[in-house]
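Work Package 3 committed the consortium to producing structural models of liganded targets before the mid-term review. Because experimental data for this complex are still outstanding, the team generated a predictive model from sequence and the ligand definition alone, so that downstream docking and mutagenesis planning could proceed in parallel. The input record is reproduced below exactly as it was submitted to the modelling pipeline, together with the SMILES string for pyridoxal-5'-phosphate.
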Amino acid sequence: MTLLEKDQKYIWHPYTQHKTAALPVVIKSGNGALLYDIDGKEYIDAIASWWVNPFGHSNKFIADAIYKQLTTLEHVLFGGFTHEPAIQVSEQLLAMMPSNQQKVFFSDNGSTAVEVAIKVAFQYFFNQNQKKTTLIAFEDAFHGDTFAAMAASGISFYTQAFAEMFLDVIRIPVPVKGKEQESYDSLQKVIDTYEVSAFIFEPLVLGAAGMVMYEPEALDKLMEICKKNNVLTIADEVMTGFGKTGKTFACDYLQNQPDMMCVSKALTGGTIPMAITTFTQEVFYAFYSDDINKALFHGHTFTANPTGCAAALASFELLQTDEIQNNIQHINQRHLQFQEKIKGHSKVLTTRVLGVIFALEIQSAEDEQYYGNMRNKLYNFFIDNGVVLRPVGNTVYILPPYIMTDSQLDKIYKTIEDAIEHVSS
Ligand SMILES: *Cc1c(COP(=O)(O)O)cnc(C)c1O
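The resulting structure, written out as tokens with the ligand in place, is given here.
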């Protein structure tokens, strides 16, 4: 049997209808922004493998840090024990974050980071004898696939089977241009009507919705409404964190600071699964008590895995180099130039750029489904041409690793231009 035949025999892939899906590409190795399949064909990873990989595949600096840690202390339980890599990650991460973030809770992935934040939001009020059990989230939000994270997510056509079992979540419109007031009014109304514990949001960019963007001023306004009404704010920076928006965190564009933040993707440079939820001291104090029942009884077996922490520390170091910071600004400039060039194209509806994120919407005859016809045609065209891009409906976005070269970017832009002609002809 070939590898692909064995794959099909044994493996159930994520987000895949196995009866109708195209066969996966068998990847053998990666180097920088490039991936190689078992036949030696090269692919440019234009979306940093689902937004996790800022410093390139098989990065030697991070690999060395991981090897060193693996051969010193690969893992130790985090209940009753601690270790220097976790302590350093906490100290350094908090130093990079908005100044009100003071406590770190480790978990395994973006969904668990969100799950922890949502549980903390509910228990924060429970511990103070207040019953606040409603959550507010954006329409079209994506916060992950575990139960609470899925309930908070607004992209719901794949979660119908569970719709009756969700937490109480009320949705408000994303304050995109022209919809700001509607969004503010809606938030105020929900807060006035329900007992709301928290508002969870993807700051400035809704990734899975197709890189939908809105302005910092609008989010500041929403956060002010929450503050005035004793509603906790949760910034889900799982996608936006670690430089994607041009600043270390999307929250760095804001006047206000959230009560909690979730990070994961890119935390370890795309190597080892790990996530962190951070909190203000005030949130932590709601759990700090002589009463054991007020503690947060949540944990995962691999909490604060030392090897993951070593990878995170190496990633922080790379992120803060002048070279990487300059690359981020350079990619942003290149995106803005490409935007100028392409935005007048008769088949292009809208374009958006923030930091290293570029998105464009292609005109389509039908109302495009998330995994619809045009999307599949585009996806296959990109793969055939050696570029990894995963369009969302009729939106094509680029989110490259920061080490991407100019010629690789040129090829991505050119392939997108060709794809627009291809799908609309
Ligand atoms: C990807 C993502 C998640 C979920 O992360 P997983 O690691 O896939 O569980 C949560 N929130 C946002 C904003 C994301 O982009």
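Reviewers should note the following from the model. Residues 241 and 249 are 5 Å apart (CA to CA). These observations will guide the Year 2 experiments.
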